[in-house]
DNA sequence: ATGTTACTTTACAAAGC
DNA sequence: GCTTTAAAAAGTAACAT
């Protein structure tokens, strides 16, 4: 009766509070990442779906919320790496990655592999590189990916190497360290990807 | 070139068994040369065999897990050694304990490069997971033999989850034909 | 700049937290 | 869910030289 009634209100309130918390977290992280409002909306929709499918049981609200935001960025074509997302989340990168894979699988989110070119505008902008360098980097990515060099490689490292190579070819040189910093990869990765990309397209 | 099945190599076999007797791991740890036992960290005692190379996890219940062997024969040989070591400690060990293979890990080579992006998109609606930011291999879960395959850009692969060596051969056949019928074998 | 070691993923059993 | 064991694949990273 009354007790049951109060209990329902209690759980309903708790659920509502949790949802509000998740959505505000998505909003906070999205702002910190500088992604447009449309991405937050997509992330919210994914989160509500995960909630309806009962995917949050046994997982932290923060972890699921962060994973939804990561997935939303990818779906909207403006990916943030797991490292970038974990930088604005209190959940560690490993947990975000695991939860993302679980949510994507359970909700049948048709996620395509991240195209390295999607990182080019942002990274190039952070490095104050011209439009010409960006076009060159995209060209390098397409050409080398077509030759099979992309399989198994991380999109950020691949994009970083192409940008580094393009900056050299366009006489707007950035150091490996500078590019590595904005892409959050090591110089060693840029060096390795750069070598094989250059070899594949031929030095010019 | 070669039939990919010919390139299959067993890398690890995991099996479980039991001596049919409870054990005092503390005393076994004292008497058994090279035994590693830290109950605070893990309830099992670790004992490594040199030839064949393997690691046995021995539990208080008398149950034992053997891992690291390169064949089912090696699993039996390793466990025979473990059983005899325990008998040397005056511990009763069943005559011929049943040994159950729980998992076989194999590696193989398809002989040509793979475009994992194309495969991920082509077989996107199947049991595939490809997240190069997290791991370079494409995870392919098969239903028929019930195993999991990790496919790499080099064309090499790992198959795990099988209970019989034949599971890996069947898996390789299915993977090759699946990729072939979708024209995803090299591209 | 290169080399070494180590960690990511998959599967599986065991006992206990 | 975690802990421990083993092993492969290839990429990335941390730290040393």
Automatic annotation (TrEMBL), chain B:
The keyword Transcription applies. Signal peptide: none annotated. PANTHER family: TATA-BOX BINDING PROTEIN. GO terms for biological process: DNA-templated transcription initiation. Belongs to the TBP family. General factor that plays a role in the activation of archaeal genes transcribed by RNA polymerase. Binds specifically to the TATA box promoter element which lies close to the position of transcription initiation. Pfam families: TBP (PF00352). Transmembrane segments: none annotated. It comes from the Archaea. Keywords: DNA-binding, Repeat, Transcription, Transcription regulation. This is TATA-box-binding protein. GO terms for molecular function: DNA binding; DNA-binding transcription factor activity. Sequence repeats lie at residues 10-86. NCBIfam families: PRK00394.1-2, PRK00394.1-5, PRK00394.2-2.
